[in-house]
């Protein structure tokens, strides 16, 4: 039975097919007394090991575990499972590894391990040969865990769907075979099978725009897909899906975990599932439930092929594929959790343990256990897994969940951790995109910016700053808030305070985001002040209570067009900040068209409509607000990708470390009057209007103008160039920056037809379009969109009438007011604030109340009574607006003066002569 060539694999566990038709199988367990390889066959098929094995029979008083110790190879029949189990006694341990060569092996073979050893829970040792264990290196997995006593290594019972028993009690003697997932062997020896794969896009960081999506949720309700492809790997690879992603313009698709997952016990007890997938069952195997039913029925190899096809299709369409991976913990949970794999193989080696109580696990993940990355073999295991996904599946990069837990030595984080060095020094992995989630639940767990080269990191400071500046500060009046120019400018230019940690480590290391899978969607940030997680079944106690969101006066959806407009402007401000900032932007799928989760900010267990993207809007015959936002975001992404100015790697150099500082030659800052900010301006929380110029000697300069106050603001732009607006967040509500002393009104066009109106009758999608356009819910949504468009037109007309009246009055009155005081009159200030759509310091509730008199019904009142604005209205009977100091006199024409809409962000491009 011993194979003389076996030990060529001595340093790596795994299942290795051999040229003789068999396989070498190797598994690690440093403290076990004996390990068996278990091969499972159907009773309908003849055994492949008939000549080699001894059959076991039930013997009163003798367990099958006692019997299997007697023979090198033995077989038993499990009639209630209708399977045959053949057990091969493995040799070892040899440097912690156990070996066996089996004479026959085939792709699709079901197998696992049984391990015997000490049972001493108080010292962390829990060997139980009655439990069939997964191979940690299995490339395929079939089956699911049942909530059954068979899943647990200790004696317990399931009563009222709850597990009852002590993890420190007696060892369970319930056989887990048939009640737990099982490993599947996949023959992957063909070294040339990927030769015809498309080239990987290898998007440079300077052009990267990350798009985070859930494989199932992205297409689960996609009407362009046949039912059998919805929510699958194949659905994501469908040509129409790829065309949508190309139209959006993103470059890198980041997939929420697609490694095989298992539902936590507490979710199973409540009849729920882990939808997000951050509870890994197999680190080499893809999640089967995301494959088509046809692939699932064919088995693990077909599931894997569907994943390969998805990756190839994404590459062929020009996208990088990034994977969210969870190596900080396993699905086994705390010591009370099930025994699936690592706990049964070698719990002492795999998991971190409390220093003063070795029977208990250290938990810096909030999931019950933490892998021990001080163990070289754990590091090797993870590196092997990553290399497999990169080399065999074709993944272009990884985002590491709770990355701080992967870099703790003796409990404390260090950027010099051996695992981080193993990643950066690996010839394959070191050249991929490696992104860290820079926090965990352990001591000093917040470590944003501290991972060093070549790692990028999620930037939570960018998220919080952007939300506070455009949402909570605006809800507080928009005059003075928690975020001033200093903080906002720091985030706009790449968060050097966090990421200037190594020479050459630039802004691209900052993964900027406003929303992600965990938390509110972008739209819900503007609809909900509070979370609404009641559907999760945890009494709304789960999920973060600190969201920096606001509802603009009404919690949830509303038909009030003024509130809708305020929300849309806020959403575009946040998207604009995200996509115009230095750094690497990451968007949440669905934010580009206004997807909502009904206020649920922790939808991890919602495998249903709450989490699935809603696509009905896509097939209306006339453009709605979803489509307008989608087009605006696509335009903004295209503008960003066209500007090489966004490649910033020059935070500091070795000279900087020696104290030889020099100001940046790439960025200049201006106040509205065109002057350079003084030190006091940077720390003035009331200074919410400023401009950031990005300079480049070889291409067009751009200026990003932030107007964070609730009235129009005039800016004097640099006089050495002419400028034109390339994009403005106020476009969403009918305004653009105006060259001169007024904002420019964008005439809202009549209904524009969409591509869905021109689908050829012989197209496969024609019937779908007709069905969608006739659907009552689609008609209702179109009616709401029509009302929104009508209201915005009324707003524009009212503002035009107001402006004309003011101009006429100004012509008659001359400049008497300015001649006497040198300042603008109250009426002038009031008119400009209203035209900007500013709420003039009103709270959202006050703005909502005021809007009832005019804007919401699409009518305009007299100019001296009430005038509707796109972000709110102001009545002449209210208190006078706070005057804004005169920075640019009205009577002096100046080609360099532009007026920017209230509460907006604008990209101005240099006009070349």
From TrEMBL:
<dbReference type="InterPro" id="IPR013783">
    <property type="entry name" value="Ig-like_fold"/>
</dbReference>
<feature type="region of interest" description="Disordered">
    <location>
        <begin position="531"/>
        <end position="552"/>
    </location>
</feature>
<feature type="compositionally biased region" description="Acidic residues">
    <location>
        <begin position="879"/>
        <end position="894"/>
    </location>
</feature>
<feature type="compositionally biased region" description="Low complexity">
    <location>
        <begin position="846"/>
        <end position="861"/>
    </location>
</feature>
<feature type="compositionally biased region" description="Low complexity">
    <location>
        <begin position="536"/>
        <end position="551"/>
    </location>
</feature>
<dbReference type="InterPro" id="IPR014756">
    <property type="entry name" value="Ig_E-set"/>
</dbReference>
<dbReference type="InterPro" id="IPR011837">
    <property type="entry name" value="Glycogen_debranch_GlgX"/>
</dbReference>
<comment type="similarity">
    <text>Belongs to the glycosyl hydrolase 13 family.</text>
</comment>
<dbReference type="GO" id="GO:0005980">
    <property type="term" value="P:glycogen catabolic process"/>
</dbReference>
<feature type="compositionally biased region" description="Basic and acidic residues">
    <location>
        <begin position="821"/>
        <end position="833"/>
    </location>
</feature>
<dbReference type="GO" id="GO:0004135">
    <property type="term" value="F:amylo-alpha-1,6-glucosidase activity"/>
</dbReference>
<protein>
    <submittedName>
        <fullName>Glycogen debranching enzyme GlgX</fullName>
    </submittedName>
</protein>
<dbReference type="InterPro" id="IPR006047">
    <property type="entry name" value="GH13_cat_dom"/>
</dbReference>
<feature type="region of interest" description="Disordered">
    <location>
        <begin position="810"/>
        <end position="896"/>
    </location>
</feature>
<feature type="domain" description="Glycosyl hydrolase family 13 catalytic">
    <location>
        <begin position="212"/>
        <end position="640"/>
    </location>
</feature>
<dbReference type="InterPro" id="IPR017853">
    <property type="entry name" value="GH"/>
</dbReference>
<dbReference type="InterPro" id="IPR044505">
    <property type="entry name" value="GlgX_Isoamylase_N_E_set"/>
</dbReference>
């Amino acid at each position: 039975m011993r194979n003389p060539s076996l030990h060529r694999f001595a340093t790596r566990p795994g299942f290795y097919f051999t040229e003789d038709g068999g396989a070498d199988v190797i598994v690690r367990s440093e403290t076990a007394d004996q390990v068996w390889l278990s091969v499972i066959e159907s009773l309908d098929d003849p055994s492949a090991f008939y000549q080699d094995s001894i059959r076991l029979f039930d013997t009163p008083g003798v367990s099958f575990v006692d019997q299997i110790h007697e023979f090198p190879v033995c077989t038993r029949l499990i009639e209630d499972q209708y399977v045959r189990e053949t057990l091969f006694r493995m040799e070892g341990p040899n440097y912690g590894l156990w070996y066996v060569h089996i004479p026959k092996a085939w792709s699709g073979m079901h197998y696992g391990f049984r391990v015997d050893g000490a049972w001493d829970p108080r010292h962390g040792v829990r060997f139980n040969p009655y439990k069939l264990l997964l191979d940690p290196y299995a490339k395929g997995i079939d089956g699911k865990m049942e909530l059954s006593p068979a899943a647990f290594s200790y004696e317990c019972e399931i009563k009222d769907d709850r597990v009852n028993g002590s993890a420190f009690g007696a060892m369970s003697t319930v056989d887990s075979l048939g009640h737990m997932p099982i490993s599947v062997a996949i023959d992957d020896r063909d070294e040339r099978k990927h030769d015809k794969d498309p080239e990987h896009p290898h998007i440079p960081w300077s052009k990267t725009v990350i798009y985070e999506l859930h494989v199932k949720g992205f297409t689960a309700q996609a009407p362009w897909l046949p039912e059998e492809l919805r929510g699958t790997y194949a659905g994501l690879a469908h040509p129409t899906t790829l065309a949508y992603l190309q139209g959006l313009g993103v470059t890198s698709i980041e997939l929420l975990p697609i490694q095989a997952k298992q539902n936590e016990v507490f979710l199973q007890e409540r009849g729920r599932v882990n939808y997000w997938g951050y509870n890994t069952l197999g680190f080499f195997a893809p999640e089967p439930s995301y494959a088509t039913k046809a692939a699932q029925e064919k088995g693990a190899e077909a599931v894997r092929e569907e994943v390969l096809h998805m990756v190839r299709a994404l590459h062929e369409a020009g996208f990088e594929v990034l994977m969210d991976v969870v190596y900080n913990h396993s699905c086994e949970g705390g010591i009370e959790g099930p025994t699936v794999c690592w706990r049964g193989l070698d719990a002492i080696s795999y998991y971190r343990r409390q220093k003063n109580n070795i029977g208990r696990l250290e938990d810096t993940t909030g999931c019950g256990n933490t892998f021990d990355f001080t163990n070289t073999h754990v590091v090797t295991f993870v590196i092997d897994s990553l290399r497999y996904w990169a080399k065999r599946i074709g993944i272009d990069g990884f985002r590491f969940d709770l990355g701080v837990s992967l870099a703790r030595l003796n409990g404390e984080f260090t950027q010099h951790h051996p695992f981080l060095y193993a990643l950066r020094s690996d010839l394959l992995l070191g050249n991929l995109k490696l992104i860290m989630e820079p926090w965990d639940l352990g001591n000093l767990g917040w470590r944003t910016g501290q991972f060093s080269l070549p790692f990028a990191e999620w930037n939570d400071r960018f998220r919080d700053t952007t939300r506070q500046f455009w949402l909570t500060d605006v809800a507080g009046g928009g005059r003075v808030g928690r975020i001033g120019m200093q903080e906002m400018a720091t985030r706009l230019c790449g968060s050097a305070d966090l990421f200037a940690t190594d020479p050459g480590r630039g802004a691209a290391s900052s993964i900027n985001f406003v929303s992600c899978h965990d938390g509110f969607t972008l739209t819900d940030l503007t609809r909900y002040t509070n979370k609404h997680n009641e559907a999760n079944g945890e009494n709304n106690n789960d999920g973060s209570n600190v969201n920096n969101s606001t509802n603009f006066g009404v919690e949830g959806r509303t038909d009030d067009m003024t509130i809708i407009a305020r929300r849309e402007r806020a959403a575009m401000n946040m998207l604009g900040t995200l996509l115009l900032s230095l750094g690497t932007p990451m968007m949440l799928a669905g934010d580009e068209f206004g997807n909502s989760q009904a206020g649920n900010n922790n939808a991890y267990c919602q495998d249903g409509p709450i989490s699935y993207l809603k696509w009905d809007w896509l097939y209306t015959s006339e453009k709605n607000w979803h489509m307008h936002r989608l087009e605006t975001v696509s335009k903004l992404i295209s503008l960003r990708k066209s500007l090489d100015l966004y490649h910033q790697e020059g935070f500091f150099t070795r000279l900087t470390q020696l104290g030889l500082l020099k100001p940046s030659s790439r960025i200049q800052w201006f106040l509205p009057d065109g002057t350079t900010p003084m030190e006091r301006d940077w720390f003035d929380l009331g200074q919410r209007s400023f401009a950031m110029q990005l300079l480049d000697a070889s291409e067009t300069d751009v200026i990003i103008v932030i107007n964070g106050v609730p009235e129009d603001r005039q800016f004097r732009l640099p006089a050495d160039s002419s400028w034109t607006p390339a994009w403005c967040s106020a476009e969403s509500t009918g305004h653009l920056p105006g060259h001169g002393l007024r904002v420019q009104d964008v005439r809202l066009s009549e209904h524009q037809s969409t591509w869905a109106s021109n689908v050829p009758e012989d197209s496969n999608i024609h019937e779908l379009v007709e069905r969608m356009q006739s659907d009552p819910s689609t008609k209702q949504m179109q009616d709401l969109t029509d009302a929104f468009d009508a209201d915005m037109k009324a707003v524009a007309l009212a503002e035009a009438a107001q402006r004309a009246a003011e101009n006429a009055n100004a012509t008659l009155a001359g400049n008497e007011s300015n001649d006497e005081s040198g300042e603008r009159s109250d009426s002038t200030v009031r008119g400009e604030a209203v035209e900007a759509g500013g709420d003039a310091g009103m709270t959202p509730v006050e703005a909502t109340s005021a809007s009832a008199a005019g804007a919401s019904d699409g009518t305009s009142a007299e100019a001296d009574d009430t005038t509707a604005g796109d972000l709110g209205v102001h009545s002449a009977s209210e208190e006078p607006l706070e005057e804004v100091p005169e920075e640019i006199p009205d009577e002096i024409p100046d080609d360099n003066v532009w007026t920017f809409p209230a509460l907006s962000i604008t990209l101005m491009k240099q006009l070349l002569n």
